[in-house]
Amino acid sequence: MDTNKNLYTVIYSTILVVIVAVVLALASYLLKDKQERNIEIETKQMVLKSVHLGTEAATAADKAKYIEDLYSKYIKDTTIQEGDLTLQLYICTLDTKDRIYILPVHGTGLWGPIWGYVAMKSDFNTIFGTTFDHKGETPGLGAEISTPAFCKQFEGKQIFENGNFVSILVVKGGADPTAVNQVDAISGGTITSKAVEAMLKNNLTEYLNFFKANLKEPAPVVPAAADSTMTVPADTTKAAIKTPIK
Amino acid sequence: MNKKIFTEPLFKGNPITVLVLGICSALAVTTKLEPAIVMAISVTIVTGFSSFIISLIRNTIPNRIRIIVQLVVVAMLVILVDQILKAYSYEVSKQLSVFVGLIITNCIIMGRIEAFALGNKPFPSLIDGLANGFGYGIILVVVAFVREFFGSGTLLGIQIIPLNWYLKNGGFYENNGLMILPPMALILIGLIIWVQRSISKDLIEK
Known about the structure:
The complex is a heterodimer of chains A (246) and B (206).
Chain A: H1 6-50, H2 63-74, E1 75-82, E2 85-93, E3 99-108, E4 113-120, E5 127-134, H3 148-152, E6 160-161, E7 164-165, E8 169-171, E9 182-184, H4 190-206, H5 208-216
Parallel strand pairs in A: 8-9
Antiparallel strand pairs in A: 1-2, 2-3, 3-4, 4-5, 6-7
Helix pairs in contact in A: 1-2
Chain B: H1 2-7, H2 23-28, H3 33-56, H4 66-88, H5 90-96, H6 98-101, H7 107-115, H8 122-152, E1 154-155, E2 158-159, H9 182-199
Antiparallel strand pairs in B: 1-2
Helix pairs in contact in B: 3-4, 3-5, 3-7, 3-8, 4-5, 7-8, 8-9
């Protein structure tokens, strides 16, 4: 058979592509549930990490179960309505009965999306903990934002100064150790560091009304008690867990 | 015959140290032993099966779209590996990130298809592909072993160097930060090539 004819080439490539497409579609269909579950566990682990829970995940016999158990024990996920925006919110009740509010944040790094979770104490000012992750920042430079050393800096920092919202500044060349709202940037990772700063500012701004509304309550803080623009659905089971990348 | 096809790429015809192919991923994924091993297995599977499949259909491939057909087959296998890693080894797939997708550009794969699979029967092609994957894997594991041991003091994530040896715990030891940077992988591969050529002098170009 002459394999150099045009017709043969066209038919050959068509059949080949169809076979490959069927194989790939089948693989995607069969593996999808498992992949989505991995992403869900990963998201839950990040939420837990922002409140310093789930630290033994790496050594747990059944990691998925370990994370799920902790998550259902401590975390309640809900949404708040802010005009047209539906904002995700995770409420964590610690063993000490302290409530911690975990806000998801997402932004754009140097090469791709970055995201994270910011855990706020119930004064809606002091940061309890943070976790950050990224899609593809430069290893050793921008990628350092996901390291514990970087995340730990945010603990105890405050996002308000004299009642004004300033967010957290990621300062190149070293933060002022006395400042309550500054952390060190990463050497060689300036653009990613600035992206973290912008991400925090943009995302936290969206929650400002929620912070104010809830602070009015003398004893914080059941979200349902907020004013009419701030309704929190009582049925939190419906609130879906979003994947961090939009 | 098959035995020679298998042993040749492990030493005398090693894809990394002799043919100097697949260097890019060898530099990138060797900071830790675990991703290096997973990468080695993934590449071995892809080289083996792509050579096998191409060899099976080698007489039917229209010559004018030969490279495209090879690419489609390799790409299919790479996507399958990527999907399976995401489902069953999520942590590692996150560490390898783009490098799994980039297996397709690993010169070893296309090189073996063009040089061997197109002119040989399926079974020897499968052996040739797997052997080249192993040859690549051996170097990856050796480099990753050195880099993880001296760069992080661990092997497969398990602490090997006693923690109380470290300066920060009052000891005398400090991890070598250079080891975890890409240039060190290049230097290590250079050293391996040097040692190999000292052992078998016939590899030295005149």
